Amino acid sequence: CETCSKEEAKYRCPRCMKYSCSLLCVKKHKLALSCNGVRDKTAFVSVNDFTDLNLLSDYRFLEDVGRTADAAARHCIVHSPATKRLLYCLRNKARGCNIELKTLPVGFTKRRENSTTFNSVENKFYWHLKLIFPHCHAEYTLKGVPDDKTLADILKPYIDPVESDPVVCQRLKIYTASPQSDVRILMKIENRSRNSVRYNELDARRSLLDNLKGKVIIEYPTLFVVLKTLKSDMVVLGQ
């Protein structure tokens, strides 16, 4: 058993291939590795190791995707006039702010998650926002972020040594221990080929709206918070 190293292993996790001896050790390994125990149907398999079982698995996976897509296309919400008006309004208001907002069909995770709204009285967006801290393998979802809030203020509860939550501060210790001048905020540029991924560097002193102008956004903004000395694999446009 790779968890307790005492008993003979009886089970093997379909997800991470770890050996376990009992239900207790299975639960421990799932908790320690954040493993869900479900086989990864899209994991890479080399040509030499590819068997008829892999082919059958791929075929069933594609069938499942087809059924899910068909069910989403038939969903009543897709054809709801209210939903169409709301999405049209969001895209139109974003276009007025020089932001190209693209929405996905119902059934996609980002479409289901998105909680972005536009307040006509205040003439302001309240964005659904995702923050990713790649050096700590952490991500956080924010809802109702006003578009006039600066990126620096948005990040304060996470990486500010004084104002951040103690639990979050401990998890993001590499960020809080680094000088604030080393922190960079990047946003992936959409509509580029997979072998040419580039990022825009945003200005933490400016508002969220100012930083999003001239950008293409799919459903909601996703910001990558990185450190200058560790972002070598994330190429900023123009570099």
Question: Would you kindly provide a written description of the structure presented here, covering whatever features stand out?
Answer:
The chain is α+β, with helices and mostly antiparallel strands and 239 residues long. The chain has helices at 23-33, 52-74, 81-96, 109-113, 151-159, 166-171, 173-176, 208-212, and strands at residues 11-12, 19-20, 100-102, 117-119, 124-133, 138-146, 183-188, 199-202, 216-218, 222-227. The protein is 33% helix and 20% strand. Strands 4, 5, 6, 7, 8 and 10 form a six-stranded mixed sheet that branches. The protein has a two-stranded antiparallel ribbon with strand order 1-2.
SSE map:
Blueprint: E1 11-12, E2 19-20, H1 23-33, H2 52-74, H3 81-96, E3 100-102, H4 109-113, E4 117-119, E5 124-133, E6 138-146, H5 151-159, H6 166-171, H7 173-176, E7 183-188, E8 199-202, H8 208-212, E9 216-218, E10 222-227
Parallel strand pairs: 3-9, 5-10
Antiparallel strand pairs: 1-2, 4-5, 5-6, 7-8, 7-10
List its traits.
239 residues, Ubiquitin-like (UB roll)
Largest sheet: 6 strands, mixed
Pattern of helices and strands: EEHHHEHEEEHHHEEHEE
CATH superfamily of the largest domain: Phosphatidylinositol 3-kinase Catalytic Subunit, Chain A, domain 1
Tell me the strand percentage band. Answer: 15-25%
Q: What is the overall silhouette?
A: globular
The strand count comes to 10
Oligomer: single chain
Q: Helix coverage percent of residues? A: 25-40%
Under CATH at level 1, the class of the largest domain stands as Alpha Beta
Please count the helical segments: 8
Mean pLDDT: 85
Kindly give the count of domains: 2
CATH architecture of the largest domain: Roll
Radius of gyration: 22 Å
Quickly give the structural class. Answer: alpha+beta
Outline the low-pLDDT stretches: none
The third-level CATH topology of the largest domain is Ubiquitin-like (UB roll)
Keywords: Isopeptide bond, Metal-binding, Phosphoprotein, Ribosome biogenesis, Ubl conjugation, Zinc, Zinc-finger
GO molecular function, one term: zinc ion binding
Subunit structure: Interacts with FBL, SNU13, NOP58, NUFIP1, RUVBL1, RUVBL2 and TAF9. Interacts (via HIT-type zinc finger) with the RUVBL1/RUVBL2 complex in the presence of ADP.
Function: Required for box C/D snoRNAs accumulation involved in snoRNA processing, snoRNA transport to the nucleolus and ribosome biogenesis.
